[in-house]
Write a structure and sequence with these properties.
Layout: H1 4-25, H2 29-54, H3 61-79, H4 102-121, H5 138-167, H6 180-207, H7 218-234, H8 238-241, H9 244-262
Helix pairs in contact: 1-2, 1-4, 2-3, 3-4, 3-5, 4-5, 5-6, 5-9, 6-7, 7-9
């Protein structure tokens, strides 16, 4: 498959998600969602092409990781889109972009994240990863792929927490469509489960004496940091939980650490 296929896919995604973001800011939810849906289908096509070409799950390299994250985050963004009958922006007078309802803010934040991911992907080659790392081993596939999935869920949780805090509704009643803070907690725990599956696969790989690359390296410290941040976010002490910015920072740290690990 010529590399031009992936280059075309990349620029199509860049155009679609920039349009989706701009239309969101201009209060055009219908066209914005249509652009995002097209982008999600394009990302799905890119993931399928990667699987067919490499005959493994897409997880190697910046381009493959970014494509999976875009597919996952945009799909969740569409799944938790604004319900019919709910106004796109706040019902306050003199409504502006900065006074969004929580679910609207989350949509915009996720689109900003996707555009940032596309900018990150531009720094590397727009092709599948060529480095060989025992890709035919099931434990290697589980280790890397579930780590990428965990990153996607953590990023969506971070956008939910940010939207709830930004709109001032995190602990003062649910948003019109859902409690964005509750959704963030659910995806934080789901991301932790995926990360745990990844670590179990890596540990099993080591216990079967398939190599010592992962044994006693800095990756164990990073993994411990992810679980520590998730546990801290789910059990915030009273002195911290009263501070909105500090609470938000702790809740989005797992996404930052996990993205650092997969990038």
């Amino acid at each position: 498959m010529p590399p031009v296929i992936f280059t075309t896919t990349y620029y199509a995604l860049l155009l679609l998600f920039i349009l989706s973001l701009v239309l969101s800011v201009l209060n055009k939810p219908g066209p914005a969602n249509a652009c995002e849906m097209t982008g999600w289908l394009t990302a799905a096509l890119g993931c399928v092409l990667m699987i067919l070409i490499t005959r493994r799950l897409p997880f190697a390299g910046r381009f493959e990781t970014g494509m999976v994250l875009i597919f996952l985050i945009s799909g969740l963004n569409l799944r938790y889109a604004i319900p019919p009958g709910v106004h796109h922006l706040s019902q306050r007078k003199n409504t502006r972009f900065l006074k969004m309802l929580p679910h609207t803010a989350r949509q915009v934040i996720n689109r900003v994240v996707i555009v940032a991911l596309l900018a990150f992907m531009a720094l590397g080659s727009k092709a599948t990863g060529s480095e060989y790392t025992m890709y035919d081993n099931v434990y290697v596939n589980l280790f890397f792929h579930f780590r990428v999935l965990a990153t996607g869920f953590f990023l969506f949780a971070a956008s939910s927490f940010t939207a709830a805090w930004y709109s001032g509704t995190g602990h003062h009643g649910p948003a019109p469509d859902m409690d964005t803070t509750g959704t963030g907690r659910n995806f934080l725990l789901l991301g932790a489960c995926c990360f745990l599956i990844s670590e179990c696969a890596g540990s099993w790989w080591c216990l079967n004496w398939l190599g010592d690359v992962w044994q006693w390296n800095k990756g164990f410290f990073k993994a411990s940091g992810v679980f520590l941040m998730v546990m801290t976010a789910c059990h915030l002490p009273g002195c911290i939980s009263k501070s909105g910015p500090v609470r938000l920072l702790i809740r989005i740290l797992p996404a930052g650490i996990c993205f650092w690990m997969v990038s």
